Amino acid sequence: MTIQVSTTDARTARALELLATADRWLKITSKTDGRRYYVVPGSNGRVYWARPDACSCPDATHRGATCKHMVATALYVAKVNAERQPKRKASKRAPSFTRDASIGGTIAAPERARLVALADSIWGVDGE
Ligand SMILES: [Zn+2]
């Protein structure tokens, strides 16, 4: 499992902060597209609907960036999946992340698709 987190990359640092609040995230299913999202806290008391491949925050919707919320949900999905399969070798099952210098940190499309599938497969097994 390779996740690059840089102390000089504010986005990944904030994603880790968000990850620490994961026990308070709500899980919702969008009536619009039928997809599942985590409700994660944003700045100024806002909340955003986030999943590893999408987020309702301005960073993602207006700038098309892989925002901290998407990174945080991707990390959370990987964490829950790792905890769920303790007998399997994490090094072969856990997702890795690659960085795209053009937007300062993103999740490569194949990895993102796998994380989305993982997110769907863990739905309902992480305590709710
Ligand atoms: Zn976001």
How does the SSE layout of this entry go?
Layout: H1 10-19, E1 26-29, E2 36-41, E3 47-51, E4 54-55, H2 58-63, H3 68-84, H4 90-93, H5 109-122
Antiparallel strand pairs: 1-2, 2-3, 3-4
Helix pairs in contact: 1-3, 3-5
The chain binds zinc ion.
Describe this structure in words.
The chain has 128 residues and is α+β, with helices and mostly antiparallel strands. It has one domain. The protein is 40% helix and 13% strand. The protein contains five helices and four strands, in the order H-E-E-E-E-H-H-H-H. The chain has helices spanning 10-19, 58-63, 68-84, 90-93, 109-122, and strands spanning 26-29, 36-41, 47-51, 54-55. Helix 1 crosses helix 3 and helix 3 (68-84) crosses helix 5 (109-122). The two termini are 26 Å apart. The model is unreliable at 100-104 (pLDDT under 50). It binds zinc ion (ZN).
